[in-house]
Design a protein that fits this description.
The chain contains 6 helices and 9 strands, in the order ββαββααββαββααβ. The chain has helices at 22-37, 68-79, 82-90, 127-143, 173-184, 187-195; strands spanning 2-4, 7-19, 43-51, 59-65, 93-108, 114-121, 146-156, 164-170, 199-209. An 8-stranded antiparallel β-barrel has the order 2-4-3-9-6-8-7-5, surrounded by 5 helices. Helix 1 (22-37) runs antiparallel to helix 3 (82-90). The two termini are 27 Å apart.
């Protein structure tokens, strides 16, 4: 991981696909794609957007990297992997977008049946203020079934560039959203949002593909 202003950061790249034959994609992903991806990336997982507006049904493959250079080189290596190309071709997969995110903070693990992704825009957030918000929110989320959270900002993603993201993994979204309601009702969260002119721009709910 890289150190920026005394804070360790890492990166994720998100490959979004439209897949014609989902069963074939999942089969080939489990047989070859995931293992091949882990040869170059630190971690990788795939999910399908279920509740996501016009993005419903899209597949996202998330790769975790130590640096931007590693992400750039890793994506090129994967694009030249014949097995990966065959997986995409045989399943009728079409690339929709690829986004690079700086991961500023992470709590808990990455396991879970579901993934929620919140996107927002705001004024710049100082590292100290972000750390305090991360710890405060994670305390509530972890009591409501959250397995892990990842906070970051899109560095390269077309119109999404600059957007803040918060990804949460859980095994029950009903329980998780009870925690979200508690957070949003708190005075501390309302002050944090107001102080940074923050506004929620979207939420997607996805299922992990295993």
């Amino acid at each position: 991981m890289e150190e920026q202003k005394g804070v360790l950061v890492s990166y994720i790249s998100s490959l979004t696909l439209k897949v014609a034959d989902l069963d074939k994609f999942i089969s080939d992903w489990n047989d070859y794609g995931k293992e091949a991806s882990l040869r170059v990336a630190n971690d990788v997982w795939a999910s399908q957007a279920i509740m996501a507006g016009e993005r419903a049904g899209e597949i996202s493959v998330i790769y975790h990297w130590d640096s931007i250079d590693a992400a750039m080189d890793g994506v090129v290596a994967l694009r030249n992997d014949k097995g990966i190309l065959k997986t995409l071709s045989d399943s009728g997969s079409e690339t929709v977008r690829r986004v690079l995110v700086r991961v500023d903070a992470e709590r808990g693990g990455r396991n879970g049946k579901y993934v929620t992704l919140l996107t927002s825009i705001s004024d710049p957030i100082a590292p100290e203020a972000q750390t305090a918000a991360v710890d405060r929110i994670w305390e509530v989320v972890s009591r409501h079934g959250g397995n892990g959270q990842m906070w970051g900002q899109v560095l390269a993603g077309g119109p999404m560039t600059g957007t803040y993201i918060l990804a949460t993994t859980a095994d029950s979204l009903d329980t998780l959203l009870e925690g979200t309601a508690e957070i949003m009702a708190s005075k501390e969260q309302q002050e944090f949002l107001a102080n940074h002119n923050a506004a929620l721009t979207g939420r997607t709910m996805s299922r992990r593909l295993e």
